[in-house]
Amino acid sequence: MAVAEKQSFGSVVRIEHPVRGESLWMDSWRRLRRNKAALLGAFIILINILVAIFADSLAPKPFDRQVLADNNAAPLWVTQVFPTMIPRGETGGYITISEDYPLGADGLGRDLLSRIIYGSRVSLLVALVGPTFALALGLLVGLTAGYAGGWIDNLLMRIVDLMYAFPTLLLIILLMAFFRLGFENLQPGTFGYTINQIDRASGGLLFVFIGIGVTSWMNMARLVRGQVLSIREKEYIEAARSLGTSTGGIMFRHILPNILGPVIVAETLAIPQYISFEAFLSFIGLGVNPPTPSWGGMIAEGARGISSYPNQAIFPAIALFLIMFAFNFLGDGLRDALDPRMRGVD
Amino acid sequence: MKVRRVTGLLLLLVLAFAVMGGTALAQDSGASIVTGLNMVGGDVPSIDPTVSETSMSIDIVNQIFVGLTAQDVTTAETIPGIATDWTVETTDEGAVYTFNLRNDIPWVRYNAETDAVEQILDEDGNPLMVTAHDVVYGFLRGLDPETAAPYSYVPIPYIVGAAEFNAGEADASEVMVTAVDDWTVQIVAPEETAFAPAIYGLWAVRPVLQSVVEEGGDRWTEPEYIATNGPFALKEWAHDESITIVANPFWPGTDGIPKPSLAEVTYRFLDPAQQIIEFEAGNLDASMIPVEEIVRVQNDPVLSTQYVTGANPCTYYIGFDNTEAPTDNVHLRRALSFAIDRQSIVDNVTRGGQTPAQWFAYPGLNASPTLETHPDLGVKYDPDLAQEELALALEELGLASASELQLTITYNDSSGHAAIMQAIQQMWADTLGVQAELTAADPTTYFASLSEEYPMIARAGWCQDYSDANNFLYDVFFSQSSQNDPGFANEEYDALVTQARTEPDTDVRRELYAQAEEIFVVEQAAIAPIYWYSTNQLVRTGVEYAPSITGNEAYYLWSVSE
Amino acid sequence: MAQFLLRRLLGMFAVLFVVSLITFLLMHAIPGGPFSREKPLPEATIALLNEKYNLDAPIHIQYLDYVGDIIIPRVTYGRIPPSASEDYLINISLPAFMGDEAVLRWVNFGPTYGSRSRSVNDIFRESLPVSFQLGVAAMAVAMAVGIPLGTMAALKRNTIFDYAGMGVAVFGVSLPVIITAPVLQYLFGVQWKALPPTGWGEIRHMILPAFALGFVNSALIARLTRASLLQVMNEDYIRTARAKGLSERMVVIGHAVKNGIIPVVTILGPLFAVLVTGSFVVETFFGIPGMGRYFVTSIRGRDYPVIMGTILLFAAFISIANTIVDIVYAWLDPRIRYD
Q1: What's the angle, vertex CA B394, arms to CA B393 and CA B395, rounded to 5?
Q2: Residue of B448, B115, B366 whose CA lies nearest to C41
Q3: What are the pLDDT digits (tens) for A239-271?
Q4: Average pLDDT over chain A, rounded to whole?
Q5: Which residues pair with B309 in a beta bridge?
Q6: Which of A87, A141, B446, C145 could form a disulfide with B412 if both were Cys (CB 3.0 to 4.6 A apart)?
């Protein structure tokens, strides 16, 4: 126990030296750098971003190039990893062996590896858009509701309840019907035309984003509110208040840093849910426009043939798993680094 | 019935009493099998014959309700149902069809307490038989505007007075369907056609028992109310889950519809991917095969011996908007159609033994041209011709190159459609240098757009309602047809299909339809046919199935041989 | 407390009202109607069907009729034939002097256009219990795995237990049910023939879907538990408790878990509402006759009353779950007050 006391004492001492405003973040950054797992996570994410950016030069083939005769082909090593995939020539063999495709080809004879590489674009975008909405809206609503309390809290939380039940699928279908199917009647320069062009340029992602935007932030808002409720009556907040610190100052200097842990963890955990949501939309046919690849869509598609061609679902799933690991390690690292009570503990 | 690849009727048989093994199966009546229904989610919409519209409903209806006529699933011919025979004579009123009914078919219901199918008795304790009055009631119920039966429009043109009654302009007594006596029904049609008897057996006008329908209200198809007259009776309907039917011991057996050998059939509502898993787990006796698993099944030493294929009278095609630019240009449509390598789609994408379609009317239909009679009819993959046609099209459209064409293909989402549309997208890019965007829509949005604002290029399919080329060429693409969404209109075509409609000689009709197809899919290329459907199933060794070429199953023809 | 509950009840009705209005407008705005078919029905038939289901009335009348059917009780006399359009959740036989076979009937969510013989109330009555059972089982799996795993990882921070536990958690949360479901079915159903791949009705049917659904969420709970526990482990009162010489076990169970669980509870509320109203993917893959599929199929089929029914049901569950969560907050942390 004594050790713990000393450590926290140490951190109080440390805080007085650097410039006050910078200390929190500089200190966190220093601790993050020491966390190997977090660095590994950051590294994987960076690689992924680079892969997404340079997909054109990295991918061995275009993502939409079909060689129909090579449908569901696989290289030999894949059939050895998945013994149920029996190469043609053997008893019960049904897999066309082709070394042209490092991970195999999909049902239309497209290179799986290239599609995974290009698919990282969609998946990374989804992984960024979700938390952006969640943090922007969720933090704002949650902090406001939790700190203000009373009828504001009540109203905001009822809006949150409302948005949980919001029929997102209806909204997506409506938008798609209007901006995609009605396209032939839209004139260049109009709002609808612009939306349609944005949708096309994003490979049909726009409405997936809207769906994620609508559904992503409520858990965050409630989580933040719950945290604020339990923190706002604490001694140090009382102290700050009695010292005349402004509301904004209390929120961002005292409350926010104290609730960041669960916030970050919840958000890094929510990323696969966004990607699952994208997979779900693909599964029911409302995902990205073919032939644009996305990991969620590839998993949804590959899962249909899991007994015959497990590689088509498993490989994109491994890609997803890797990036998830990265986000979670980084999230953990961030959590530890940003926890004000952990300062100096290293 | 509707083309629903995802939710079409599927088949699987669960060996419900597998545990009991040989003993139960060895008995004559002991073979209980379970067959599945392809449902992605939810329930069978209805098993009320009058309002049935999906293939799932109709597959079950066909086992428990029999109409005046029926379709032999192995030959696709029209055979007697509850009628023994029929005659037609032309009078001043029109063509009078007279049906003589069997007098030994009772209405039955399964009684859960006694675990037996029982006859329904009248107040005096006598069994209620299916009479001409029940037949008339079935027709009138199907045509009644109050019922709003979705398929009423198929029989309406073939019954004098039906259209007026259905429109609310005339009384039911104006409908020329009458019971001459208890066992004779007369129907007056405006003119004689080869296929009218088939239409009079359609599910929408099958006999139902009035007293039961009135007592049970909307719920009369529940096991506690229902009265059926087919080879099987309804035992249980576990909504969203399964339907079980049991052999009806009171079914007298006819030439085409014998007494069932199976004691029980259970349909489980599962989509194809789940069915094959259950089949391989040993829980189903028959299963649909999803396209992703087909090649494995075909090559597997065990599964390949249980693999059966059948015909399915449906045509998969893409439709062009014939009325708006740029697809109102006939050369463009021809270029696009000739540039589709249908053999490659069938071999590499659908992989289930489908046949590349050269024309629209499915070849197995009555009076439809077949590949034997007309091997060179219709459209085939021809890249050179496609490029020539494209050059003509670009000239007429005033475009410098194919890259200036902006095409959109719209389809209702499902992985099967997406794969085929992507393959076509690439074929057009490779052969013609034409870029086409793909737009997927949810099914209902898509279907609504077909009739309201036909997309530039749209995926479509058509399956038979009754087995005659008329159901494809006249019912769909006659210029005035309500089904003619792409807006195809051609006087010569209209004249040919109208003439073929009432022509008595089948061979003459076939030639007329061949000429019509030549105009429709080649000269005008109003649509691009892609393939003719097949069915793919796994049927457990020991289960004798009836090879079906109609897309429907007849479980009264199945048996268990072990 | 009573005042709090009353306020929340009113809030719930407000939420239900707004949700119903939004849903009603949205669903009528999307193209296509319940009778749009690939093989289009003749306009005359569609007109007849619209008339049958009151879809030809002005939109605000349709809405008022819909709400009226749910909230206004009515009294019927004599036998009414079983009807999908006139099916009430609450049927109370009235004393004879009030009329011949008088019955007070209340709460009618309307027919389903997807089936001629069923009503939305039928779907509630038959499918909701199924989804509820599965949801509770999945919730149990999620909590039974998630909370101990998270607690262990927090206590043994930066040890092999922590990494292994969190590895499992990340693994679970990274795999969409779309892939875990068929893999589980293949392994347990086809390969090992240990469990039925699909179906419903017995305990053994429940194992795979409850696991598929619960495992994903157990990961979420485990990670959140770990983070929240770490957060509170350094709080003053934990140090005080330790200083008082309480065993580590007592400290964790008595103080840390109770206080650290708040973020977890926050997630559990909506999660519970989601799970017990069913999952489209899990029910589809495992052939389970639950509610979850109706959330998607009703929208795809423009089955208006089912869309309304499912969305309102879910909204009610969410409101109730979040109310309970707020009560639990106050119980877990007496400093939280709602006034």
Answers
A1: 90
A2: B448
A3: 887 888 888 788 777 888 778 877 887 787 788
A4: 82
A5: B536
A6: B446
Long-range contacts of A83-89 (CB under 8 A, 24+ apart): A84/A307, A84/A310, A85/A308, A85/A309, A85/A310, A85/A311, A86/B299, A88/B299
Counting residues of chain B whose pLDDT is more than 70, the rounded percentage is 93
What is the distance, to the nearest Å, from the Cα of residue B302 to the centroid of all Cα atoms in its chain? Answer: 31
Match 């590499």 to its residue by tokens.
B348
Q: Decide if C117 and B451 are in contact by the 8 Å CB cutoff.
A: no
Give me the phi and psi of A240, to 5 degrees please: -60, -40
User: Does the domain spanning A32-65+110-342 belong to CATH 1.10.3720.10?
Assistant: yes
CA B275, CA B6: separation in Å to the nearest integer? 13
Task: Say whether C106 sits in a helix, a strand or coil.
Answer: strand
**Three-state DSSP state, C111:** strand
Q: What is the per-residue DSSP string for B105-140?
A: -B-EEEETTTTEEEEPB-TTSPBPB--HHHHHHHHH
- How do strand B307-320 and strand B457-463 relate by DSSP bridges? antiparallel
pLDDT digits (tens, 9 = 90+) for B434-476: 999 888 888 888 998 888 889 999 999 999 999 999 999 999 9
d(CA A116, CA C292): 31
Record the tokens describing residue B148, joined without a space: 């709003």
> Helices A36-53 and A20-34: crossing angle, nearest 10°?
90
Positive or negative: CA dihedral B461, B466, B468, B473: negative
pLDDT at B29 over 60: no
- Say whether B190 sits in a helix, a strand or coil: coil
Whether C268 and chain A come into contact, CB under 8 Å, resolves to no
The Cα B149–Cα C48 span in angstroms is: 9
Largest CA distance in chain A: 82
d(Cα C140, Cα A205) in Å, to the nearest integer?
35
The DSSP output letter for C84 is: S
Q: What is the DSSP string of B429-488?
A: HHHH--EEEEEEE-HHHHHHHHHHS--SEEEEEEE-SSSSTHHHHHHHHSTT-TT-TT--
| Beta carbons within 10 angstroms of residue B328's beta carbon | 13
Within 8 A of C227 by CB-CB distance, chain A residues are 261-262, 264-266, 332, 335
CB-based contact B366:B76 (threshold 8 Å): yes
Q: Give B454→chain A minimum CA distance, Å.
A: 10
Phi and psi torsions of C213, nearest 5°? -80, -35
Contact A51, A81 (CB under 8 A): no
Choose among A119, A127, A124: nearest CA to A294: A119
Give how far Cα C100 sits from Cα of A138, C77, C94, C215, C242, Å.
58, 6, 9, 55, 74
Q: Between C178, C186, C336, which is nearest A300 by CB?
A: C178
Which positions 183-242 of B are in contact with C (Cβ < 8 Å)? 214-222, 225, 238-241
CB neighbourhood size of B196 (10 A) = 24
Query: Residue B414: how many CB atoms within 10 A of its CB?
Result: 19
Domain parsing of chain A, residue ranges: 32-65+110-342
Tokens 């290239």 label which residue? A114
